[in-house]
Write a structure and sequence with these properties.
Elements: H1 12-23, H2 30-38, H3 42-56, H4 60-67, H5 70-80, H6 83-95, H7 102-111, H8 114-128, H9 132-139, H10 142-152, H11 164-177, H12 186-195, H13 198-212, H14 216-223, H15 226-241, H16 243-255, H17 262-272, H18 277-288, H19 292-299, H20 302-312
Helix pairs in contact: 1-2, 1-3, 2-20, 4-5, 5-17, 5-20, 6-7, 6-8, 7-15, 9-10, 10-12, 10-15, 11-12, 11-13, 13-15, 14-15, 15-16, 16-17, 16-18, 16-19, 19-20
Keywords: Annexin, Calcium, Calcium/phospholipid-binding, Cell projection, Cilium, Cytoplasm, Nucleus, Phospholipase A2 inhibitor, Repeat
GO molecular function, one term: phospholipase A2 inhibitor activity
Subcellular location: Basolateral cell membrane; Cell projection, Cilium; Cytoplasm; Melanosome
Amino acid sequence: RGSVKDFPDFDANQDAEALYNAMKGFGSDKEAILDLITSRSNKQRVEICQAYKSLYGKDLIADLKYELTGKFERLIVSLMRPPAYGDAKEIKDAIAGIGTDEKCLIEILASRTNQEIHDLVAAYKDAYERDLETDIVGDTSGHFKKMLVVLLQGSREEDDVVSEDLVEQDAKDLLEAGELKWGTDEAQFIYILGRRSKQHLRLVFDEYLKISGKPIERSIRGELSGDFETLMLAVAVKCVRSTAEYFAERLYKAMKGLGTRDNTLIRIMVSRSEIDMLDIREVFRTKYEKSLYNMIKEDTSGEYKKALLKLCGGDDE
């Protein structure tokens, strides 16, 4: 359900040559760069990088960084990286220097599949020669840290066979760990929400509502706090109920009000363009009564805007 597909009659050498020509001489043909890169799939872009290297003995990403600037450069360069390396770079940036971008950590680790998490851990090791878990542990604390470590294992159950007894037990355990307890047993929340399959958790949430009379979201808000609460809501509830809705909400928040959170906007548009952009657009339209396309159009400008609109893939108004 992505908006970006493989380009038909693809020729990596031809594309590498076109990009080389668009960047040679004085100033670069940004329009040509933008059109070509946003209409190729990630797999094809990676092949173009290899072709560029063998034709010109140069690194395409380095040349693009040199030729382009600002948000447009960040977007184009993000498109050139394989998804796992894109995630690794985002996480590296999120924990570099003083302070941590917890929202970025939450978004990536809460929404990726087991396989995507395994690929991310390997890419991080390859790109930075460091262990991702060690870096995250060094940069976060408390229950928030513990839950991130659970997610980093990429060991969420994936079978769709659901045991009714276990559903009832989990719902009861969550209720006893939170609402019915003086203080909260966070470990129980971490175990159940971090390990069980999505299919199973959806039924647990239904059962929870039945036995407690309130949605699990409300209990999480009442029982947990800070980044840990945000993470549990993202993982547990939003990404389990609907990943597309989670991303639609993140995109809306990145653009509404004054100023745009460009890093968030770029990260989501790039990482979901080949996965579920069509679903995200649909949810966005229903939830906010305007199209994602229009909101991007009103909120951004120049080549940056054009490239984002290409990734969006169409207007739903």
